[in-house]
Each structure stands twice: as C-alpha cells, then as structure tokens.
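Format notes (please read before filing issues)

Several people have asked whether sequences and structure tokens are stored in separate files. They are not. Every record keeps both together, in the order shown below: the sequence lines, then the token lines. Line labels are part of the format and must not be stripped during preprocessing.
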Amino acid sequence: MTLLTLPSTREEAWRWSDLAALPALAETQPSGSAGDASGFFLGCGGPRLLFVDGVYQADSSSPGPVTVGAIDASAGDHPLGRLAEGKGWRLALGRDHAPGAPVEIVHLSTGGTNHLAARIDMDDDAQASIIETYAGEGWVNRLTAIRLGRSARAMRAVRLLGGSGFQSMTERAELAEGASLYTSFLGAGGADSRIDVRSELAGEGAFAEIGGALLARGKQRHDANVVLRHASPEGMSRQTWRMVAADQATASVAARVEVARQAQKTDAEQSLKGLLMERTATINLKPELEIFADDVKCAHGATVGELSRDALFYLSARGVPPLDARALLTRAFIADALDRIGEEQAREAFKGDADEWLGGAA
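Then the structure lines:
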C-alpha cells in the first residue's frame, strides 16, 4: 500500500483542489497500452522525446541536447512536486547556444501514477522553446526546475489533454539579469489539473510571463496557483489567465505578485477572467499584490461573466447557429491568452485543441 500525505481543502492554498482520487490512482497499475504517439508531435523539426507512463522511450525519441537520468530538481516543501524529484530529463544549454527548433516532449500515460522531474539550465544569452503535451489516463505528476542565466530566453508551452485522472504540474524558476521566461498552459482534456508555479525574478530587468486557458466541463476541476516574486529593480511580469467552466465544472486561479523592498521600478500586471457557460458551473479568481517597494507600477483585474446575450442575438440574426455562436464567442474570449504563444506551430496547435474542446462543449 502506498501512503500519501496530501494537503487538505482546509488549507488556504488547496481549498479549490480535489485530491480525493489520488490515493486510488496511486494503487492502480498502468495498462501499458499507449497507442500511437506520433499525432501528438507537432513536427517542428527539433529534438523530440517520448515518455510512456514516465518511462523514456529511446527508440521513439531524438533527444538532441536533452539528456535523461538523475535530475537535480527540488520542489521544496510542495507536497506533490517533491514526489516527482529524482529521475527525469534535462536540457542544458551553454552560453549563447540555442536548438535549431523547439524541443517537443510528449507524455502518454495508461493509468495508475507516474512521477517525473525535469530541469532546464540555460547559461547567458541561450535561447530555447519547449513544447510539452500530456495525454492519456491516470495521475501524471511533474516537477520542472528552470534556471535562466543573464539575458537567456525560454518559452515553455504545455498542453494538458489527458482524458481522465489528474495532472499536477509544479514549476520552479529563477531568472538572472535581463532573462525572459514565458510559460503557457492549455487545459483542454477531461482530467482534473493542479498547476503550481513559483518564479523569482532575481536579476535586474528580468521578465516573466505566465498564463493560459483552462477549459472545464462535466464535474472537472482546474486549479492554477502562481507566485511571481520580483527581487530586483526594473523587472516586468505579466499574467493572463482565461478560465471557462461548463456544466458543474470548477475552474480556479490564484495569482500573486510579490515585490521586494529593493525591487524598485517593477512593472507587473495581472489579467484574470472567467467565463461561465452555465450558472451551475463555478469560477474562482484570486489576484493578489504584495508590495514592499514604493516606486512600482502594479495592476490587477479579475472578472467573471457569461456570454453576451446581445452578441449571441447579433450572430443569430445573421444566420449563425446558436452552438456555433457560443463557440465563436468563447474562442474570442480565450484568444488573448493563446495568442501570446511565440511559436506559430504551437500556437496553432493549441488553438486547434481549444476548438475541439469548444465543439464538444457548445
């Protein structure tokens, strides 16, 4: 029997997450029947790695500069992230190095539980884009540690397409002077999810942007928790989240910006928006600013609403079927979160996945 120590919903940071299914998933064995993974690769032409139930598939991978083995990545006291510490993949780039194309990583799961760590180490002026796709069933638990050197630039785009089960993603990042990190999530499957991100803008002039679109239906739950800490002057951060909940689903995001006393000239913005497809669904938005410096520009906004009846009537009057009109307006609602993905192939793939979800939800 596996003993899991899981947080309770009575803890503030976990009050919107339902982890009740995890002990049973931890006792289940994966079927091992993963099927064909080729459809989940975008064909960017760069390094590609396949993991099935957390196990590296060398015959189906072209890792390039990515290595697989023991990983030095720590989740601190995070109760889920620390379960993933140990083995995983590592992308290490030296000064001014960059892969010729995005790194694609596909994770397929066939039930049960699998844990895996990752580490992205980029020296000064290095650049990389990483596109990750998660599909299948079961509890998929991941920890990603990121270190960006001076003026390094990284883009990470994550698709959560699991059909059932639970997907927990923990990210820890540290950015040096002038470094830039963009992380985007799309939740468009049937599994519940929990996203925890903590990024420290340690160097002067660092930039971090995180956001995405989390789409939930049925009794599904998505829960994102983000902390961006400005520790040095002239840093900039952006958070853009779009949450959509249909049926009796719940989509939640808690986003906090912390500005240390010495982090003068910080520029931070949060934009959190939720769309209720039915009034039986739930959206929770919690923006927070914790500021100790006195010369900063920080703003946050949070709104929850429904599709505009006037817009639906306008489209209906022009011959657009009601279901298509709902999908069209919902697509427009999440567009500003997905449009910020820098890699065109990833951006279009993410939009395609969202369109497929909208077709099923409309």
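For reference, the curators noted about this record: The chain has a mean pLDDT of 95. The CA atoms of residues 232 and 317 lie 54 Å apart.
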